[in-house]
Amino acid sequence: MRPPDPTCTHSGNLRILMTINVEKLVNPRALKAAKYDMKHVTVCWEHDGEIQRAMSNESAYSPLESVQAAIRDIAGKVNWYPEDASECASLRDKLAAYASVQRENVTLANGSMELLDILFQTFIAQPGVDEVILVAPDYTAYSIRARLFGAVTRFAIGGEDTDKVADNILELVTPRTKFVLLSRPNNPTGKVMRTEDVLHILDSGVLTVVDEAYIELADEGTEVAPWINSRDNLIVSRTFSKAFGLAGLRLGYVLATPQIIHYVNLVRHVFNVNLVAMVAAEASLNDMDNVKARIDEQRQTREWLTEQIARVPGLRPIPSQGNFILVDIADAGKKPEEFVSQLLNRGIFVRDFSKKYGLEPDRYFRITVGQRQDMERLAQVLQSIC
Ligand code: PMP
C-alpha cells in the first residue's frame, strides 16, 4: 500500500480535480511580461526556402565549409556534456585574442539574449527599486527582459539624436542605477555612438554594458572591447549570430573584468552553451580570412543598397554600420505596414517599425542586408512599389 500523500485530504485523485488559481501563484512580473513577438521567424520556417528573410538581422550566408565540417565531426560526440563555459581554454583564448583581452575576461552564453538575463540576475537585487538605463530606440529585448527581472527601466532619448544621447543617459543616473545598457551599433538605427560619448559615460563611473552584436559590420576600430583592460565599469556583449552567421546555434560571449566574469559564471547555468556551438565558433575563429571576406562583402552590399534606396522617391535610408538599414518613409505616402505586406507578397520579409518606442510612429521599416543578388531584387521591388 502507498503511504497517504500528506498534501491530500481525500483520495489521490482529489489533487487532479482541484483547480488552482495560477494567476495568484505566478510571479506578478511574469503575469505582466510582454511577449517578444516571434511570428516572423515562424512564418519563415513554415515557408522555408520560399521567403527571403530580411527581418531578423541574421546572416544570409550559410556557414563556411570549414565550420560545417567541424559541426559534422562533432555530431558523433554530443552524447557527452560540453566543457563548461568557464573552462574551454582553447575557445576562450581565441576569443580573448580576437577581442584583444585576456582569457580571464571571457565567458560564454547561449546567445547574447541569454547574456542579458544573466546580467539582470547578476545585478538586479531589489525588484522595483534597482534601475537600468536604456536608450530609445534600442533592441526591444532589453526592456522586456529588464522588466521581467524587476528592473525599473529609464529611457534616454537616442534615435537620430546620437550627438546628445550620452548626456541624456547621464542625466538619468541615480544612486539606484545598476547599469546602462546600449547597443553599438544601435539596433534599429544602425548608428554608432561616438567614441568620446562612450568615454564620457564610462568616466562618470556608471557600470556600462555595450552590446557589440553588430561590431564586425562597423568601421574598423569602432569596438570598445579592448578598453576592458583598463576600465572596470565596462561590460561588452558579443554574438556569433550576426557576422559569423551562426544564429541557429546560439552562442554569445561576454567580456569584462575577471571579478565580473566570476559572478556571471556563478549566475549562469552550467552547460548553458552546447558543444556544437563551441566547436563551430572555434572553427570560425580558425577561418578568419573567409569570415572577413564575407564581412567585407556585406559591408559593400549595405553601402550599395543604401544608395539604391536613396534613389527611390519617398524613401530615406539611414546610413548604417550594422547588417541592416532603417528606412524612413515619411515622404512615401504609404504606411510601413503597406510596404511590409507588399514586399511579403513578393516573398521578401522586412520588419515593420511603425510602433517602435523611441521612433516616430508610422514612419520606418527595417531591411536586413543579405547577399547581393537578393538585394538587387529587393531594390527592384522597392522601385516598383513606390
Ligand atoms: N543584441 C542586439 C543588438 C540584437 O539586435 C540581437 C538580435 N537581433 C541580439 C543582441 C541577440 O543576439 P543573439 O542571437 O546572440 O541572442
Question: Could you describe the 3D structure shown?
Answer:
By secondary structure, the protein is an alpha/beta fold. The termini are far apart. The model has no long low-confidence stretch (mean pLDDT 94). It has two domains: 39-61 and 289-385, Aspartate Aminotransferase, domain 1 (Alpha-Beta Complex); 65-286, 3-Layer(aba) Sandwich (Aspartate Aminotransferase, domain 2). β9 and β10 form a beta hairpin. The chain has 15 helices and twelve strands. The longest helix has 24 residues, at 288-311. The strands form two sheets. A seven-stranded mixed sheet has the order 2-8-7-6-5-3-4, with helices on both faces. It has a five-stranded mixed sheet with strand order 1-11-12-10-9, with helices on one face. The radius of gyration is 23 Å and the shape is globular. α6 packs across α12 (275-285) and α7 runs parallel beside α8. The chain binds 4'-deoxy-4'-aminopyridoxal-5'-phosphate. 4'-deoxy-4'-aminopyridoxal-5'-phosphate (PMP) binds at residues 57, 111-113, 139, 183, 187, 211, 213, 239, 241, 247, 252. 4'-deoxy-4'-aminopyridoxal-5'-phosphate binds at residues 57, 111-113, 139, 183, 187, 211, 213, 239, 241, 247, 252.
